[in-house]
């Protein structure tokens, strides 16, 4: 695939075929993703790739604890909830997804079912938990570097026909993820990425999220034209 085709074609995938992903292909995608640049080439990231029974136990623990009201235990700062234009964009993508899935605004049951899918990592066959070395915890640079590699990862996967969704919901109950994936204490959990073969019949997979324009985002100074 051409670069533009990957970047423009990729979208978050939230419905997967019940078909395993070969370990060799995941290794290939990781190797490509790890070409991402990092601060001083420190490459602070690590990947815990889980599937099968291990991933099923993470899904189960995540759903059970969230339903039981166990407070979230993400290992990074969340800040206040989104407001203004950020809140508007958050609502906009939710509306697009709910419209595609036929989920009515006031149908609490359907909305809850969608949230639970997220906690189950959308039943993807693979989840990649991204961590970084705790020895450099405290700076914003390591999370920045993890963001860089995750962006490369989802695009590298797409270039090989695989779909992904970066899934904060999957690591909200970090002790479950840590225990089941065998993540040692010297690692900080940043996020996880659900991965698998896209189910082309799953309506939400067709949703193309909107972007603000370059004019809204970029300021140019000192140019002649
Ligand atoms: C840090 C981060 C966390 C995310 N967490 C979730 C999540 O928990 N559940 C979900 O459905 N999508 C999640 N997403 C996917 C975003 O909703 C998605 O990337 C965004 O709406 C743009 O859509 P696109 O990926 O299809 O271009 C996350 C994305 C990022 C970057």
From TrEMBL:
Keyword Ribonucleoprotein: no
SUPFAM superfamilies linked: FMN-dependent nitroreductase-like (SSF55469)
InterPro entries with a match to the protein in the record: Nitroreductase, Nitroreductase-like
GO MF annotation list: oxidoreductase activity
Keyword Oxidoreductase applies: yes
Keywords: Oxidoreductase
Residue ranges of domain Nitroreductase in the record: 7-197
UniProt family annotation: Belongs to the nitroreductase family.
Protein name, entry field: Nitroreductase
Organism of derivation: Quisquiliibacterium transsilvanicum
Upper lineage: Bacteria, Pseudomonadati, Pseudomonadota, Betaproteobacteria, Burkholderiales
């Amino acid at each position: 695939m051409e670069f533009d085709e990957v970047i423009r074609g990729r979208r978050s995938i939230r419905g997967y075929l019940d078909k395993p992903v070969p370990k060799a292909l995941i290794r290939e995608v990781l190797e490509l993703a790890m070409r991402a640049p990092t601060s001083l080439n420190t490459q602070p990231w690590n990947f815990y790739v889980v599937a099968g029974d291990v991933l099923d136990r993470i899904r189960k623990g995540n759903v059970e604890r969230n339903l039981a009201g166990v407070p979230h235990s993400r290992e990074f700062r969340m800040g206040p909830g989104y407001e203004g234009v950020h809140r508007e964009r958050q609502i906009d993508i939710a509306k697009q997804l709910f419209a595609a899935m036929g989920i009515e605004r006031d149908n609490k049951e359907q909305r809850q079912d969608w949230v639970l899918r997220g906690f189950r990592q959308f039943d993807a066959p693979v989840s990649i938990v991204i961590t970084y070395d705790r020895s450099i915890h405290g700076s914003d640079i390591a999370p920045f570097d993890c963001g860089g590699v995750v962006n490369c990862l989802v695009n590298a996967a797409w270039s090989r026909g695989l779909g992904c969704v970066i899934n904060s919901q999957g690591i909200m109950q970090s002790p479950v993820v840590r225990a089941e994936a065998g993540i040692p204490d010297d690692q900080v959990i940043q996020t996880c990425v659900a991965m698998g073969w896209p189910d082309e019949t799953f309506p939400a997979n067709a949703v193309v999220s909107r972007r603000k324009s370059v004019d809204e985002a970029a300021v140019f100074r000192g140019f002649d034209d």
